[in-house]
Amino acid sequence: MSELNLILLGPPGAGKGTQAERLVEDFDLPYYATGDILRAAVAEGTELGRKAKEYMDRGDLVPDEVIVGVIGERIDSPEALDGFLLDGFPRTLGQAEALEDALRPLGRRLTAVLSIEVGDEDVVRRLSGRRVNPKTGRVYHVEFDPPKVEGHDDIDGTKLVQRDDDREETIKHRLEVFHDQTEPLVEHYEAKGLLRRFDGSRSPDEVHAHIRATLATLRLEEQL
Ligand code: ADP
Ligand code: ADP
């Protein structure tokens, strides 16, 4: 079977992590979310975490040189030979170019960039109501996807938390950073014919069905 090298693109709160959970199950792909990787590094107090923390707390992007190597290592690992799902990377044109530079010598290329589109108002509502299981990263929403028992994870009962950067002032800044530094990637990937757009204001199941259908069509086209 052909490789499936995928990127999830979209503003913070678009539902990238929510969709990734489903796609990883559908396609059995290794999933690399730079936000999760960085938060784990901060929690463990590694050098990467120490370098990243102050940027993350402010809602700024960590510098490209800090994050590029982290992803380069993973896409070149044995588990990623048949493909990968990237979430939250690339987030700048520099990172997109670094990714292309890392794939080229491996004789690989991207299959598609899945762009989940939602407006700023939805982003604010989604991020301010987001709650996460700090152990597993599983995501809930106080209004749109509440846990069965308020404040606790459905599966392991862990107390849910609000991410430090999901507070209103930081959310606004992260949105500005998205429009300024990450949104230009939409045009970049459109020009390469890789972009696939999805209406992220629909329900998680509807967005998922649409992505699945698109990937199925892409695979059929590749076989022709
Ligand atoms: P969200 O899921 O809300 O979009 P993430 O969990 O992906 O947010 O990212 C949280 C923070 O981690 C970002 O605000 C940024 O500081 C840092 N970060 C994550 N990925 C990258 C990246 N590719 N480049 C630079 N910074 C990143
Ligand atoms: P991202 O990874 O892009 O930052 P998440 O998947 O963490 O986004 O979703 C952000 C918040 O919005 C979470 O609280 C999640 O439960 C909720 N959410 C995700 N997708 C949808 C959707 N289609 N409709 C309503 N709420 C959603």
3D structure, described in words:
A hairpin with a 6-residue loop joins strand 5 (130-132) and strand 6. The protein has 2 domains: 4-118 and 173-223, 3-Layer(aba) Sandwich (Rossmann fold), CATH 3.40.50; 120-162, no CATH class. It is 49% helix and 14% strand. The protein has 9 helices and 7 strands. The chain has a 5-stranded parallel beta sheet with strand order 2-3-1-4-7, sandwiched between helices. The protein has helices at 16-27, 34-44, 47-58, 64-75, 93-103, 120-128, 168-182, 184-191, 204-223, and strands at residues 4-9, 31-33, 83-87, 112-117, 130-132, 139-141, 195-199. The longest helix is centred in the C-terminal third of the chain and has 20 residues, at 204-223. The chain has 224 residues and is α/β, with parallel strands linked by helices. The two termini are 13 Å apart. Bound molecules: adenosine-5'-diphosphate (2 copies). Residues 12-13, 17, 34-35, 38, 55-56, 59-62, 67, 88-89, 91, 95, 165, 174 line the site of one adenosine-5'-diphosphate (ADP).
What's the layout of helices and strands?
Layout: E1 4-9, H1 16-27, E2 31-33, H2 34-44, H3 47-58, H4 64-75, E3 83-87, H5 93-103, E4 112-117, H6 120-128, E5 130-132, E6 139-141, H7 168-182, H8 184-191, E7 195-199, H9 204-223
Parallel strand pairs: 1-3, 1-4, 2-3, 4-7
Antiparallel strand pairs: 5-6
